[in-house]
Amino acid sequence: MKPVLCVVVLSMLFGVQQAHAACPNDAVFLILGDQIRGYSLRANGATEPCQVLQGPLTTLMTAGATVIDGKKSFHVAQFLTSSTVDIFPRKAEGNQAPSRAFMLTLTNDLLSIAVDSHLNDFVLSIRPSEAGVYVVPNNSSGPLAISMHITDPNMSQYESVAIDSDDNLLIAGYDIQGTAIIDTFGTSRSMTSPPLLRSLTGPKTGLFSGRGIFFSRNDMTIAVDPRTDELFVYNTSTDLTQSQVSVFVAKANGDVPPVRTISGPATGITNNGLPGNKIAVSSDGRLFVAEPNLRILAFAPGTRGNAAPSQIIEDSTAGPTAQGGIAVRSEGSRQNENDDAQ
Length: 342
What we know:
Distance between the termini: 43 Å
Number of helices: 2
CATH architecture: 6 Propeller
Shape: globular
Number of strands: 26
Number of domains: 1
Largest sheet: 5 strands, mixed
Structural class: mainly beta
Order of helices and strands: HEEEEEEEEEEEEEEEEEEEEEEEEEEH
Strand content: 35-45%
C-alpha cells in the first residue's frame, strides 16, 4: 500500500483529523485528551482549527497541561493514566509521533507543567505519596527516576506551576487550612535546593479558599505575563458557584490585593475544575480562558470587573465537548526573545 493511501486509511480508521497548514506564529491551542487543536490569536466567532494533532502515533490519551517552550515546541503532560510528557515540534500536525518523550516512573497524576529558558521541565504531580514538582533536565527521554524533586512545606494541596522571567518557579495551591498560597522558589539559583523567595497569601489577595477540594480537580491555575511578569490567577470557590481571574503585580509578595479582578456573569468564565491549564497570557497582555464545547474567551489587556470578552473563538468542527487545557504562542514574548538569542 502506498504511503499516502496508508495515511488516508489510518485517518478513516481512527477518526484522525485531516492535515491543515501549520498555525501562524501567534496562535492559541486547546489540549483535549487525545488531541491538540490550534487557532489564530486573532480569530473570532466560528473558526476552523489551523492545526490539529491527533492519532495513534501521537500517543496522546489524557493530555491536559501543556506549555510551549522557547523553541516553540509543545510539552504535553498526560494526566492520571500516564506519567508521560510528550514533546512535539512547532508544526506537529495530524498523526505525528512526538520528537521525544519522557516518563516519570515514580509518579503520575501530572496536573501542570512549566519550562524555563534552558528548556528544563518542571512537572507538577498531585499523587498524594509523591506530590510536588519534578525537575527534568533539557533533552531527557525515556523512563526517568528523577532525583530533583521540589516540595513546598507550606503546601497541602498542589494546583499549578509557572516560570517567571528570572527562571524562578511559582507553585500555587492551598495550605493545610485551605488558604490559597502562591510561593516562588529561586530555581535560577539552585535546581536541587531552591530558596523560598516570596509567598503570596492572605485575605487581601481575595483568592477563594480551597478547603474540601477533591485532589484531582484543578481549582487554581496560574500564568505569568511573558512581558511584564504580572501574575494571573484563575480561582474558584469550593462550591463552584464563583470563579475569577485575579491579576497581581510582578513579584507580588505577602498579603497584597490584586491590581484588578475579572469576574461576573458577563465574562462567561465558568468553573469546570478539570485538569489542564485554564488560562494563558499572550505577549501583548491578552488573557485567554479555555471553556467547554471548544470555546476560548479572550480578554483585552487591562480588562477588569464584570466585562465581556473582546473575542470568543468557537471551533466550528466536531470534537470533544469537555474543557481542555490551553497554551498560547505569540511573537515578541520573553520565550521567543530567549530563542532568538540562542
